[in-house]
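Deliverable D2.4 — example input (C-alpha cells):
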C-alpha cells in the first residue's frame, strides 16, 4: 500500500513538472513571438525613415539641378550642375536598390517598386534622342516610380540647356524668327521640367503617406491628439 502511494505521488509530481514545463515553453514561445513582432515593427519603422530620407535627398538634389539649368548652355551645365548631380545619383541609386529589398520585406514588392523597379535600372530611354519623347521612361503608367521621375527631370533639364545653345546661335546669326522659336521651345521645356519637379514633390508625399498607413496596419502605434 505504501509502494502504491509512493508511485501515485511520483506520477503526480511528474505530471505537475510536465504541466509546468509545457506552460513555461508556451510562455517562452509567446514571448519569442512578441519579440519577433517588435523587431519586425522596429525594422519597418527604420526602413520607412530611411526611405523618407532618400526621397527627400533626391528632391533636394533635383531642385538644385533644375535651378542650375537657368541661363546656362549645355557645356556649362554639363560640367557644373549636371556633373554634380550625376555624382550624387550614382550613390543615390545604389541606396534605392538596397532600400528596395528592405521595402519588399516589410511592405511588399509593389510598394518597393513604387520607389524603384530594380529590373529596369539599366534601361536608359534618354539615350534614344531620335524618339519623339526621349525623356519618357520605359514601361506603362503603372510601372512609373520615384527613380524614373528623377531620371525624367534630369533629361528635361539637359534639353533646356541645349535649347539655350540654340538661342545663343540664333542671336549670333541675328535670325529673329528662329530666335523666338528657340526661345518658345526652351520656355516650354523649362516649364515642363519645373512641373515635373513639383510632381516629384507631390508623389513623394503620397508615397510616404502610404508607408505611414502601412505602418499603422502593421500595428505601429500613433500619437492620438485629444481635443
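Example output (designed residues):
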Amino acid at each position: 500500500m505504501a509502494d502504491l502511494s509512493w508511485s501515485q505521488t511520483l506520477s503526480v509530481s511528474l505530471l505537475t513538472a510536465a504541466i509546468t514545463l509545457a506552460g513555461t515553453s508556451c510562455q517562452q514561445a509567446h514571448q519569442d513571438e512578441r519579440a519577433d513582432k517588435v523587431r519586425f515593427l522596429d525594422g519597418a519603422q527604420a526602413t520607412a525613415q530611411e526611405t523618407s530620407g532618400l526621397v527627400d535627398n533626391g528632391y533636394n538634389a533635383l531642385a538644385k539641378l533644375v535651378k542650375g539649368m537657368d541661363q546656362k548652355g549645355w557645356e556649362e551645365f554639363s560640367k557644373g550642375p549636371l556633373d554634380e548631380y550625376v555624382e550624387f545619383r550614382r550613390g543615390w541609386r545604389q541606396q534605392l536598390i538596397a532600400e528596395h529589398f528592405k521595402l519588399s520585406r516589410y511592405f511588399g514588392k509593389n510598394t518597393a517598386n513604387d520607389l524603384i523597379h530594380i529590373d529596369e535600372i539599366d534601361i536608359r530611354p534618354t539615350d534614344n534622342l531620335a524618339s519623339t519623347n526621349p525623356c519618357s521612361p520605359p514601361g506603362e503608367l503603372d510601372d512609373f516610380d520615384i527613380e524614373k521621375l528623377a531620371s525624367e527631370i534630369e533629361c528635361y533639364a539637359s534639353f533646356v540647356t541645349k535649347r539655350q545653345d540654340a538661342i545663343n546661335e540664333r542671336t549670333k546669326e541675328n535670325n529673329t524668327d528662329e530666335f523666338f522659336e528657340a526661345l518658345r521651345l526652351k520656355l516650354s521645356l523649362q516649364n515642363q521640367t519645373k512641373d515635373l519637379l513639383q510632381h516629384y514633390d507631390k508623389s513623394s508625399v503620397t508615397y510616404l503617406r502610404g508607408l505611414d498607413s502601412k505602418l499603422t496596419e502593421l500595428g505601429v502605434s500613433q500619437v492620438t491628439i485629444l481635443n
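Helices lie at 2-68, 74-79, 81-107, 109-115, 146-173, 176-218.
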